[in-house]
Amino acid sequence: MNPETDPSAPVLALSDLVVEYATRHGRLRSLDEATLSVAPGQIVALVGESGSGKSTLGMAAGRLLASNALHVGGRLSLAGRPVYGSGAVDGEPLRALRRDVLGFVFQNPVTALDPTMRIRRQMELACRGRREDRHERPVAELLQEIGLSDVSRVLRSYPHELSGGMAQRVGIAMALRRRPRLLIADEPTAAVDATLREQILRLLVSRCREVGCALLLLTHDLHAVAQHTEQIAVMYGGRVIEHGPTAEVLDHPSHPYTRALVAALPGAEKPGQRLEAIRGIPPVLHTACPGCAFAPRCPDALPECRSTRPVYAAVGGRKLTCHLHTGGTASRSAASARNGADRDPADDADRDHHGQGRRTAT
Amino acid sequence: MPFHGDLLSRVSLVVLLGLLAVAVLGPWLPLGDPAAVNVGPRLAAPSGEWWTGTDSLGRSVLPRLVEGIRTTFLLAGVAVMGTVALGVALGMLAAYYRGPIAELIIRGADVLFAFPSLLLAILLVAITGPGAPGAVISIVLICSPLMVRVVRAASLSVVGRDFVVAARVGGAGPVRILLVHVLPNVAGTAVVQATYALSVGMLIESGLSFLGLGLQPPNASLGSLVHEGAVYLPIAPWLVLIPGALLALAIMAVNLVGDGLRDALDVRGVEVRR
């Protein structure tokens, strides 16, 4: 392990990270002051629509963003070592930090493996450069652990000879081979056959728990999130807008966007009942959003939501970026006055009430 | 033309291997000394005794043709190796390091690309002086720009792929990524491109020799044989036609083998055929 990393520090900590992409049509802001913290060994889901900045956040963790990405502001640290912001590591120390702390599991397992190399050689390469190399167990054992039966055939195979599910298992084994402290999995089951998704995800989470590795799971799949993760962070418009214990957040979502996401989730509806789509389209930011990015689509938006940026603050055991839940009294009473209902995050009936209201309006 | 491409490239491969065998074994074939003069009558037409006739100095043309094939393949082959080494290295670098290094490489390639190839070759030989080194350098500089572009394009699609990101997460440095991950993935493309470079190289070498800027007499190449025979075209046309036809045959064979290789190495093509 890298002696300079701090074992007690969060494995991943972002504060107000701003990342923009320089494109032919000007700047695109992908992360707009995103703040997030992942403790060692924690299983965290990062959910949000396409374009909300999840993948940018994942790649930024290893400073692996595309060459047209620009770090505009804020800080990111990995196991206590700064990756973006003042004193950021670079060159050989950055490579050593990635090697010791990070692992990646990709969406498409087949492109995550080098098509010109047999699996055995890829797995051997995956852990080169570690000092404890010689004490590593043979690759065959690692493959058995992740539930592959025909190990010797897999080791002799080229990636295109494996099924998607097998390739993803190999990808997980490779990512965990170096015993990283943080594994970032970007929709690891999206390209896998539907019947295998649950298996692969269970494998991923259980392997992470066994080796004590934190997992940041980037996904759309709220059902999977509910079953497998301890914490959930919801992203919208390049910011983390709600972060808390998974069960609590999904049962009693506070942020209007989280509430809308949960309402759009199939599963609990009665026959004949329509699922709620979120109206409007996600924002495309070119610069800092003047207010809350969700305000134009938010059913409960206050006047200040469009003009003042909400701050990321602790509210009752979770973190929220919302004017309706500042923990203070002013905006809460304003919201109550406007909606004629108390906006307590635990108030489930309130959510239902709004759901009904919108449903009849549609 | 996939329906008869296979047969055509197979025949071409046989022709190419035959010519290569002649080129390699040439000095040991019992054909006589290619430089010996007055071994027969002057400007004799092809006959049972002199299969491909004799030239104005009474030299037998057959050993000279064999030597010509040998020279043309040798010079073009050496130049192609240089082209591959230079083009693959620069192409991968230009793909991996975007920014000033890449710009420099790409613009440099564009400048060379802008010259008509034979004009550039003549210019370079004017600097280096006539002879084999000048011809080889010319071919390398003429063929490299295309090689750089093709390899760079192939590498760009590789360096963005997930397994390269995975290697970087694993702490791999640029050297390891380029040699272990990118090179094997662009090797097929580079090989196919090299066959085209070989045919262009043969053409340039012959062109330079025809102009008297390649290998110097009494050494023969296919181009210099055409040049020597050109004066006698009305009375001894075989002196031009035979080396000319051999050159055309060799270049065509190289190109068709290249096409066959391209089809064989194109993974997507294979899947479609299944």
UniProtKB/TrEMBL annotation, chain A:
- By its UniProt entry, which Pfam families does this protein fall under? ABC_tran (PF00005), oligo_HPY (PF08352)
What SMART domains does the entry give? AAA (SM00382)
* Bias type Basic and acidic residues, positions: 340-355
Compartment annotation: Cell membrane
Membrane topology category: Peripheral membrane protein
Membrane-crossing ranges are: none
A cellular component term, taken from the record's GO annotations: plasma membrane
Keyword list, A-Z:
ATP-binding, Cell inner membrane, Cell membrane, Membrane, Nucleotide-binding, Translocase, Transport
A molecular function (GO) held by this record is: ATP hydrolysis activity
- The ABC transporter domain sits at 12-262
List the residue ranges of the region (Disordered): 327-362
- Per the record, where are the segments of Low complexity compositional bias? 327-339
Which GO BP terms sit in this record? peptide transport
* Cited Gene3D superfamilies: P-loop containing nucleotide triphosphate hydrolases
Is Transmembrane tagged as a keyword? Answer: no
The keyword Translocase appears for this protein: yes
* Family recorded in the similarity comment: Belongs to the ABC transporter superfamily.
Q: What is this protein called?
A: ABC transporter ATP-binding protein
Give the species.
Actinomadura soli
Automatic annotation (TrEMBL), chain B:
Record's family? Belongs to the binding-protein-dependent transport system permease family.
Keywords from the named record = Cell membrane, Membrane, Transmembrane, Transmembrane helix, Transport
The molecule here is called ABC transporter permease
Compartments reported by the entry: Cell membrane
* Cellular component terms (Gene Ontology): plasma membrane
> Which parts of the chain are coiled coil?
none
Q: Which segments cross the bilayer?
A: 7-29, 73-97, 104-127, 133-151, 196-215, 235-258
Question: What domain of life is recorded for the organism?
Answer: Bacteria
The question of whether Nucleotide-binding is a record keyword is answered with no
What membrane topology does this protein have?
Multi-pass membrane protein
* Source species: Actinomadura soli
Read off the PROSITE patterns from this record: ABC_TM1 (PS50928)
Q: Which Gene3D superfamilies match?
A: MetI-like
All copies of the ABC transmembrane type-1 domain together span 69-258
A Pfam family per the record: BPD_transp_1
GO BP:
transmembrane transport
| Record's keyword annotation contains Transport | yes
